[in-house]
């Protein structure tokens, strides 16, 4: 075993469980080491090597209101699918978290959708809510970061605001970190960054399928 492998193994033990009580009390929670280092690295390398055509320009709004407005967001996304083994591993794990949230918080979360996001240097995502009260089936947002190294000077922080516009959290997008928050409560934004920034953003949803039509996703 090389020293590098030993380091990876050692780091692999340092994962943290999500603090469900804190999530219930404050509406959001940040976990520093949600996944083992080796798994983060695998996802990071996978995202980095995806060809251009594997990504699409991210849009805003849903269904009829769907537009790609690069004044608002400039990231590129790729929806995860169960067909791809690495993507499926992430989906499976987030489904286990869904079951835990339902068990412990009685949230009645029905499913989970998520996409990889790539913010090239200079990209941002202006202040927004991920869901509007009573109008969306997105209940909980999860953001998981993949870059192994990230510093303040790199920008690209996630800023989460309180109901009076005050800054609640400024989050460095570092590998292993998971942020979970109520989708229709917390206004947030991604500041302009100077480096390629990779993450997986997802939403736990209630069942909003009507007449056999599955709710379209943005
Ligand atoms: O990447 C982040 O830090 C947040 C992304 C986000 O707000 C979104 O995709 O809705
Ligand atoms: Fe968002």
What does the model show?
With 218 residues, the chain is an alpha+beta fold. It has one domain: q2cbj1_9rhob like domain (Jelly Rolls), CATH 2.60.120. 23% of the residues lie in helices and 26% in strands. The chain has four helices and eleven strands; from the N terminus they run ααβαββαββββββββ. The protein has helices at 3-12, 20-26, 37-49, 85-105; strands spanning 28-31, 56-57, 76-79, 111-119, 125-128, 138-145, 158-161, 167-171, 178-182, 188-190, 197-205. The chain has a seven-stranded antiparallel β-sheet with strand order 1-9-6-11-4-3-2. The protein has a four-stranded antiparallel β-sheet with strand order 5-10-7-8, with no helix packed on it. β7 and β8 form a beta hairpin. The radius of gyration is 17 Å and the shape is globular. The protein starts with a helix and ends in a 13-residue tail after the last strand. The model has no long low-confidence stretch (mean pLDDT 89). Bound molecules: 2-oxoglutaric acid (AKG) and fe (ii) ion. 2-oxoglutaric acid binds at residues 117, 125, 130, 143, 158, 173, 188, 190, 199, 201.
Question: Summarize this, please?
Answer:
With 218 residues, this protein is of the alpha+beta class.
Keywords:
Jelly Rolls, 7-stranded antiparallel beta sheet, 4-stranded antiparallel beta sheet, 4 helices, 26% strand, globular, binds 2-oxoglutaric acid, binds fe (ii) ion, Proline hydroxylase, iron, peptidyl-proline dioxygenase activity
